Amino acid sequence: MEVVVLADADEVARVAASRVAAAIRRRRDAVVGLATGSSPLGIYATLARWVAGGELDVRAVTGFALDEYVGLPAEHPQSYASVIRRTVTAPLHLDPARLHVPDGRAADLRAAAEAYERAIRDAGGIDVQILGIGANGHIGFNEPTSSLASRTRVKTLAPRTRADNARFFGSSDEVPTHCLTQGLGTILEARELVLVAQGEAKADAVAAAVEGPLSSMCPASVLQLHPRAGVYVDEAAASRLRLVDYYRHTWAHKPEWQRG
Ligand code: F6R
Q1: pTM of the model
Q2: Which pLDDT band, with edges at 50, 70 and 90, does 260 fall under?
Q3: What are the angstrom distances between the C-alpha of 257 and each of 11, 16, 253, 254, 260?
Q4: Structural domain count, the chain
Q5: Domain of 225?
């Protein structure tokens, strides 16, 4: 795992966006896994600037959302379909036909989850998966005790997650209770993982994910099993990492030939 400690949220966005851009430059029709929430917004804004400046071409890119609430109409402003349209598809001028979001309104949610897994497979798998991390260590909506081998399925949101996401709704009561989320096993199959975290509220989760035991109690610790996982954090989110000096040293001395 590569752990990169950066000065602030802008640097996190720039360095993480450059990983995503590199995957798209390697393969014009790359398949990108898209997290929602606050953490990746800087990545999307940075990519959008590069697209606007002609430095990056995303016209052939396919996107797969990580998760979706169950029961929200697709046009609800907080459905992840809407959020991704607003924060990714529109600013990057991504082809809306190439955006996939789990169908949280499906009458048969199990079938919708299976169809989502099939769609990822049919697209050739995810080249680079963007991830945030919950304060409880979740990635996607794989809450603590999620199976490390899980596939896309329905999950019940933890009370902590509903409280954390209340800021996007009127109150935590309005946050849906269930979601469809890619599983940890699904996420592990992406060819590269790019996890970003900013702020002190994420410091415990980041430390547990990076330096704690591999455990379903911290679902993000599953990144330890991935051969190409990068964790990009600001100083505050890095503040509980024991080996922070090592991570700084490694990044400062990373040779150009190792940066691809
Ligand atoms: C959202 C998602 C979640 C968030 C996490 C952090 O698609 O998968 O795992 O990444 O809850 O949320 P923020 O970034 O809002 O702190």
Answers
A1: 0.97
A2: low
A3: 21, 18, 11, 8, 7
A4: 1
A5: 2-258
Q: Mean pLDDT in the chain?
A: 96
Q: How many CB atoms lie within 10 A of CB 256?
A: 6
What pLDDT is recorded for position 30?
98
User: What span, in angstroms and rounded, lies between the C-alpha atoms of 16 and 195?
Assistant: 8
Atom of ligand 1 nearest to the CA of 37: 15
* Gap from CA of 54 to ligand 1 centroid (Å): 29
Long-range contacts, stretch 79-86, CB < 8 angstroms, 24+ apart: 79/104, 80/36, 80/104, 83/36, 84/34, 84/36
User: Given the CA of residue 36, which atom of ligand 1 is nearest to it?
Assistant: 7
Q: Is the pLDDT of residue 259 over 80?
A: no
- 152-181 pLDDT, tens digit per residue, is 999 999 999 999 999 999 888 999 999 999
The CATH number assigned to the domain holding 118 equals 3.40.50.1360
Please, what is the angle between helix 41-52 and helix 9-26, to 10°?
Answer: 60
Q: Is 181 in the pocket of ligand 1 (CB under 6 A)?
A: no
Q: Over range 224-240, report the average pLDDT.
A: 98
35 lines ligand 1 (CB under 6 A): yes
Query: Ligand 1 center to residue 37 CA distance, Å?
Result: 5
B/e letters for 112-141, b = 16+ CB within 10 Å, e = fewer, are bbeebbeebeebeebbbbbbbbbbbbbbbb
